[in-house]
Amino acid sequence: MEIFCPDSGSSxxxxxxxxxxxxxxxxxxxxxxxxxxxxxxxLYSVSACFLSHEHGDHSAAAWDILNGGIPxxxxxxxxxxxxxxxxxxxxxxxxxxxxxxxxxxxxxxxxTEHDAKEPLGFFIYSKETGERLLFATDTYYxxxxxxxxxxxxxxxxxxxxxxxxxxxxxxYYIKRLRVSHLSFQMLKDYLEKMDTDYLKExxxxxxxxxxxxxxxxxxxxxxxTGVPVYAP
Length: 232
Description:
This protein has helices spanning 32-38, 56-59, 62-67, 76-82, 160-164, 171-178, 184-193, 214-225, and strands at 2-7, 14-18, 23-26, 48-50, 72-74, 90-92, 99-101, 105-111, 120-126, 132-136, 151-155, 201-205, 229-230. It is α/β, with parallel strands linked by helices. α7 (184-193) packs parallel to α8 (214-225). The two termini are 17 Å apart. The model has no long low-confidence stretch (mean pLDDT 96).
């Protein structure tokens, strides 16, 4: 599968995933002009957009995506929070649903844990390549294990040790980070439980400024998985 990560973090999130036959967007958290520029002004090369939750760094261009005629798949709670629940281009989905896109991609949403109305992660299978991709961001915990994952796009927001030493942020910031985002330590715990034998690549998403260590995260996750690890 082909994975393109124009932006990841609190300033905006946008990812494009494709299998050579069908392409989709995961998140649309940049202004539509920047999204078009990132995709070489070929927005209609994507068949749909899947949105995890309503926070602006993930959903900024939701209305533009819908008004541009690209189906937007998200939970009813997210749609209501964004005020798009009546839009003709909206395709609501719930955990456990199976969504077929473009003839080759099969997407299964699952529940995540975040301070949003009804957040989702997405497990994606390509009938074209036989590969599987797991996408989970903005969640402090992942309650499910998925079979034969080849590509892992997963949050690695902060390190507990670094966070404990920060004196330039409020207690509210620290508490919210811990109950809404996946830490480096929690990611390692998840990988220890996960069958990593099928992994080909790992993408570490949504690192927090000042509370993360990109080099440490990449090196440690490479040791655990034995595959290339990227921090877009």
